[in-house]
Amino acid sequence: MDYPDIEIIILPDESIEGVSLPLCVKVVPTGNVTPPLKRDIGAKAATGEILAFLDDDAYPVSGWLESAIKIFKENPDYACVCGPAVTPLDDSLREKASGFVYSSFLMSCGQIYRYLPRRPRFVVDYPSCNFLIRKEIFDKVGGFDTKFWPGEDTFLCLKVLETGKKMYYHPKVLVFHHRRSLFKKHLSQIRSYAMHRGYFAKRYPKTSLRWDYFIPSAFVAFLVVGPFIPWATDIYVPVVLFYITSCLLTSLILGFKAREGFLRKLRLVDLIFTGIVMSHIIYGIFFVKGLLASQMPEEKL
After folding, report:
1. Is the pLDDT of residue 199 over 90?
2. Which end of the chain is more exposed for a tag (fewer CB within 10 A), N or C?
């Protein structure tokens, strides 16, 4: 990035010794703590008017800050600005497949804009891997100040919305975000996302009680009990075939759009198809588990 007035704060667990860094870079060791606590520590050390959060597996395009700051300057009532987190072209095949799963309509429904550039819009909930907020507002709401992880960004966004301020998404505020490789790491992330979203749907309905979050759980329930319900037996096979066909067509379209050789495209199709189906099942099961939970594991610590 080529921005005239920038302060970069790195928050490692331990101090970095013997590394030459530019003057604009500040290293603040935090100890082995959760990401939301790291970000709160970084925010306290920051001297700028805007806090720009990135994960350690995300990196911005060159005009990232310029695009965001322009929005902030032109709209003083906007508290936050955010943008898409796109899968890098140089990711491994399994990481790319994970990105395609997330960016498919069957997985993200109306939230594809989180993973691919889409039209500008106001949002009520956004991941902190690409999230900018006025420091004044961040301090006013008390920062992240939560044990939740993941879900810390949802918690912060809810507090921001309660101030009456707006959160704005723009496709030019773009970062690249490496994905978790299919299948183990990807599904582990899906499981954690689902549990927290299910829990938040009950505890923080203002931003998390959405009908589309319940679809995977309803589908899994239909798969399990459908054959034993009289009214469902007649539609069970057609519904399952329609679902499989939809997943396969989606996988074919996404796989063959990728900039890969023919054999790698075929491999991508297989990975995307299996990834979508397994993501739906894992999400559906653990969303219900979160919905029924009295608290999240990290709250007990």
Report:
1. yes
2. C
pTM over 0.85: yes
* Residues 52, 192: Cα–Cα separation, whole Å: 25
Nearest CA-CA partner of 289 in 181, 217, 205: 217
The amino acid at 106: L
Place of tokens 């060159």: 62
Q: Cβ neighbours of residue 8 under 8 Å, at least 6 residues apart?
A: 22, 24, 25, 26
* 85 in Cβ contact with 129 (< 8 Å): yes
Rounded (5°) CA angle 25-28-31? 150
What is the 8-class DSSP label of residue 184?
H
Number of neighbours of residue 196 by Cβ within 10 angstroms? 25
CA dist list (Å): 149 to 9, 57, 88, 264: 21, 16, 24, 35
pLDDT of residue 91: 94
At residue 124's C-alpha, the angle toward residues 141 and 1, to 5°, is: 80
- Please state, in angstroms and rounded to a whole number, the distance separating the CA atoms of residues 134 and 52: 9
Q: For the chain, which domains are there? A: 8-300 (3.90.550)
> CA nearest 1: which of 35, 18, 24?
24
What tens digit of pLDDT does each residue of 102-132 get? 999 999 988 999 999 999 999 999 999 999 9
Query: Which residue, among 247, 256, 251, has the nearest Cα to 277 in the 3D structure?
Result: 247
